From TrEMBL:
Keyword field: DNA-binding, Phosphoprotein
Record-annotated Response regulatory domain positions: 3-119
Keyword DNA-binding appears in the UniProt entry: yes
Residue ranges annotated for the HTH luxR-type domain, each copy included: 133-199
Gene Ontology MF term list: DNA binding
Biological processes, Gene Ontology terms: phosphorelay signal transduction system; regulation of DNA-templated transcription
InterPro entries per UniProt: CheY-like_superfamily, Sig_transdc_resp-reg_C-effctor, Sig_transdc_resp-reg_receiver, Tscrpt_reg_LuxR_C, WalR-like
Highest taxon, organism lineage: Bacteria
Record protein name field: LuxR family two component transcriptional regulator
Record-listed 4-aspartylphosphate modification sites: 54
């Protein structure tokens, strides 16, 4: 029997996933949590074989929890779920050394199969997402450019960004121009959209 801890903040989704997984003859959901900060304590208490974790969780994000599990409980496998099929998100998950990555809109049979494969020591990645990540390539922006773009995406104007990052407004405008050029964005809004869709910000 494969013991599963399920971390999902949407109650209806969590309930549906538990019901579906408990129909499988070889899978048992032994614990459920709704916030990321409860994943590691739950895993320590219930000793699951696989933690099925939504990436976007309140309090602590799923990837951070998965990394902690990898470091402190290497025998517990992690399978990430996301509703956002962004290549950058997949790359972050792989960098965190999760064992599997699946889109939430995958058929239930795929989830059960992914849990079995991850429990058996395989690495499972949604094939369409893997292709998209391959096609998209690495983020061309520097860490500083990403900082500037994140603040711009939050609605900050160049003066606000300059203050936040201890730069001059002119330097910030230069960064934004460079960012738009690197991302082939028509304007700042388009550059933000491109970066968000790729999962870079």
């Amino acid at each position: 029997m494969i013991r599963v801890l399920l971390a999902e903040d949407m109650h209806m989704v969590r309930g549906a996933l538990i019901a579906l997984l408990n129909l499988e003859p070889d899978i048992e959901v032994v614990a459920e949590v709704s916030t990321g900060d409860k994943i590691v304590p739950g895993a320590r208490l219930h000793k699951p074989d696989v933690c099925v974790i939504d990436i976007d969780l309140p309090i602590l994000d799923g990837l951070t929890a998965a990394m902690t599990i990898r470091e402190t409980m290497p025998n517990v496998r992690t399978l990430m779920l996301t509703s956002l099929g962004r290549p950058g998100t997949l790359r972050k998950a792989l960098a965190a050394r999760v064992d599997g990555f699946l889109l939430k809109d995958a058929p239930p049979t795929e989830l059960a199969d992914a849990i079995r494969r991850v429990a058996a020591g395989e690495r499972v990645v949604d094939s369409q997402l893997a292709l998209a990540a391959w096609d998209r390539g690495e983020c061309p922006l520097t860490d500083r450019e990403l900082e500037v773009l994140r603040l711009a995406a939050d609605g900050a104007d160049p003066a606000d960004i300059a203050t936040a990052l201890s730069l001059s407004a002119g330097t910030v405008r230069n960064y934004l121009t460079t960012i738009m050029t690197k991302l082939n964005g028509r304007n700042k809004v388009d550059a933000i959209r491109i970066a968000e869709e790729a999962g870079w910000i």
